[in-house]
Amino acid sequence: MVFKVGNTMFGLLPLEGEPPRVSLKCDPMRALALRARYPAAQPGYHQDKRHWNTLLLDGTIPAAELQALIEHSYALVVAGLRRADRP
User: What predicted TM-score, i.e. pTM, was given to this entire model?
Assistant: First the structure.
């Protein structure tokens, strides 16, 4: 399942696989800090490893952190859109 804003992807959720996982766009420095804090945060699978994380949804990353990362990914993509496409 692909999540987009405008025509740009900000999240990817494979429908198969155990444990479930989600890939989200992330600021490179925040991505490194996240990977250091949580073993379930890995470089983006089949994505640009600097700007994408794949997060294993195994319960080790708190729900509030996951929500913040989804919002962060969305905000990064919106910021990169043309001003006319942002609303």
Answer: 0.90
